[in-house]
Amino acid sequence: MNVPKQATPDHPIHELVAKRWSPYAFEDRPVSDSDLRSIFEAARWAASSYNEQPWAYIVATKAQPQEFELLLSCLVEGNQGWAKAAPVLAIGCTNLRFSRNGKPNSAALHDLGLASATLTVEASSRGIFVHQMIGILPEKAREIYHIPEGVQPLTGLAFGYAADPKALPDAFRDRDLAPRTRKSLTEFVFSGEFGATSNIVK
What we know:
This protein is α+β, with helices and mostly antiparallel strands. Helices cover 33% and strands 15% of the residues. The chain has a single domain (15-169), classed as NADH Oxidase (3-Layer(aba) Sandwich), CATH 3.40.109.10. It has 7 helices and 4 strands.
């Protein structure tokens, strides 16, 4: 597509980070099983507290239409409208307790996020885009997939190749066409006390 979505960083960053973004429009083109294996292999090697690796992903592709429709039904209605075009959907879950001692794992949500960020970088290296979303129906996912108590279904993920957004509804099309923007470093890198901008970013 000819809509530039690459980041415009103020300081040098890796091109995979600069090129990553979350499209709403996806091509009608499958993601190969070999690419998916490598994407989830990257998640496997993400860092986690005590190497607990508390994450799990429930995955469905359009190669199995019934499975795909089931997983799609676990997204909120607003996300179903655009995510149905993606060739691959997933739900990210995390175990809220350490498997080694049963104690609460306060890093569980962080670690799922880190695994998903790591798989996103691997996907980007393959020209595949990942759109993560908090808009899921966790209790429906729990019921359909028999997710046990203590494991939290937290996020949805759509995988695929970015498409021309012209066929999207107006709101989503405008988001896909809008340039990427971010807070400046001065707004979130602090020293001394919270809210005091660090000298390293002034």
